[in-house]
Automatic annotation (TrEMBL):
<keyword id="KW-0597">Phosphoprotein</keyword>
<dbReference type="GO" id="GO:0005737">
    <property type="term" value="C:cytoplasm"/>
</dbReference>
<comment type="similarity">
    <text>Belongs to the RWDD1/GIR2 family.</text>
</comment>
<feature type="compositionally biased region" description="Basic and acidic residues">
    <location>
        <begin position="99"/>
        <end position="117"/>
    </location>
</feature>
<dbReference type="InterPro" id="IPR006575">
    <property type="entry name" value="RWD_dom"/>
</dbReference>
<comment type="function">
    <text>Protects DRG2 from proteolytic degradation.</text>
</comment>
<protein>
    <recommendedName>
        <fullName>RWD domain-containing protein 1</fullName>
    </recommendedName>
</protein>
<feature type="domain" description="RWD">
    <location>
        <begin position="1"/>
        <end position="91"/>
    </location>
</feature>
<keyword id="KW-0007">Acetylation</keyword>
<dbReference type="Pfam" id="PF05773">
    <property type="entry name" value="RWD"/>
</dbReference>
<dbReference type="InterPro" id="IPR016135">
    <property type="entry name" value="UBQ-conjugating_enzyme/RWD"/>
</dbReference>
<dbReference type="InterPro" id="IPR040213">
    <property type="entry name" value="GIR2-like"/>
</dbReference>
<feature type="region of interest" description="Disordered">
    <location>
        <begin position="99"/>
        <end position="119"/>
    </location>
</feature>
């Protein structure tokens, strides 16, 4: 979109190719030609962005600086926009990779948790003896209750 003729100022919206789940990143670049363009770099700024964090914006600005310096003396807007387009596609790929890594990490954690559940307590002599004492006490208690019940049942029976 041309914003002014003197100096020539315009904006170009650059969108990445759609990634997974049709997710895209987008930025709108504003270019202003200087008097000596293309022997002098144009002025540029990012006027808006979508789904980009601050580090990504800084990377795009550094990329624009580098590409502008490399292309001094040549018409460079197409080259700058193409470089930004490639960078946005890389960012979408990084987002996709990050999500896949997070998913794998969650799967690994769930797997470890599952292993831990089935692992149980290791049996040592001390653990076994503690368990055996509790088990014997429970059995003794059950026998006592059973004997009391039999005694009660025996008293209530009629003889004869």
């Amino acid at each position: 979109t041309v914003l002014s003729e003197k100096p020539t100022t315009f904006t170009i919206t650059v969108t990445s190719e759609a990634g997974e789940n049709d997710e895209t990143v987008q930025t709108t670049l504003k270019f202003t030609y200087r008097e000596k363009y293309p022997d002098e770099t144009p002025l540029y700024e990012i006027v808006s962005q979508e789904n980009l964090d601050d580090n990504d914006v800084m990377d795009i600005i550094k990329l624009l600086e580098q590409q502008a310096e490399e292309n001094l003396g040549m018409v460079m807007i197409f080259t700058l926009v193409s470089a930004v387009q490639e960078k946005l596609n890389e960012i979408v790929d990084q987002i996709k990779t990050r999500r896949e890594e997070e998913k794998k990490q969650k799967e690994r954690e769930a797997e470890e948790e599952e292993k831990q559940r089935f692992h149980g307590t290791p049996v040592t002599i001390e653990n076994f003896l503690n368990w055996k004492a509790k088990f014997d006490a429970e059995l003794l208690e059950i026998k006592r209750k059973k004997m009391k019940e039999e005694e009660q049942a025996g008293k209530n029976k009629l003889s004869g």
